[in-house]
Amino acid sequence: MIQEYSLISRRRAQAWGYDLVIAAAIFTIALVFFYFYTINNSRETEEVFQKMFSEGDLIGSFILSEGYPENWNPSNVVSIGLLSRGEINETKLESLYSLTLSDYNQTKKLFNTKYNYYFSLEGKNFSINSQPVSGLGENYNNHECQNLIKLTRFVIYQRAPATLNLFVWN
């Protein structure tokens, strides 16, 4: 009887050992999959942010240029720029405002970006046609955005320093 009990006990122990090996293999495979997924996902996220930062920097450069032609308007603009003699030109600001309202996608093409943008002047309230305006572009607060970056530039507006906050998002 003792030998018979010992034989049954060994068979149960062997079955339990196989279960443990299979469970360990499944856990190891899951761990390896998770590890590679997180490495690849973080690289993709970093690449997206680098691309967004690069395009945001480009938009900021366009905004802080004179644009082309020098006195552009929504009907003849080739390159959007808001500066004249080193400070923000209110006529160009009004032109960009009307262009963003009428054809926001055209402004994205002129800025050479696929990302959405929004910019505002901190420390200064600006108005277009005597109406207060909080910012220009597509406001990220009105949408669910996956990624958002903020670039800050210092500008002169109405002969006083101001901070231009540029948000780029998708």
SSE inventory with pairings:
Elements lengths: L1 H62 L19 E2 L2 E2 L1 H21 L5 E7 L3 E3 L2 E3 L2 E2 L10 E10 L2 E10 L1
Antiparallel strand pairs: 1-2, 3-6, 3-8, 4-5, 7-8
Q: What report would you give on this structure?
A:
The protein is an alpha+beta fold. 49% of the residues lie in helices and 23% in strands. It has helices spanning 2-63, 90-110; strands at 83-84, 87-88, 116-122, 126-128, 131-133, 136-137, 148-157, 160-169. Strands 6-3-8-7 form a 4-stranded antiparallel β-sheet. Strands 1-2 form a two-stranded antiparallel ribbon. The protein is elongated, with a radius of gyration of 30 Å.
Radius of gyration, in Å, reads: 30 Å
C-alpha end-to-end distance: 74 Å
The 3D shape can be described as elongated
Biggest sheet architecture: 4 strands, antiparallel
Mean pLDDT, rounded to whole units? 85
Helix share of residues? 40-55%
Structural class: alpha+beta
**How many domains in all?**
1
Count of helices?
A: 2
Strand order of the largest sheet: 6-3-8-7
- Identify low-pLDDT runs: none
- Give the number of DSSP strands: 8
Name the helix and strand elements from N-terminus to C-terminus, one letter apiece: HEEHEEEEEE
Q: What is the strand content?
A: 15-25%
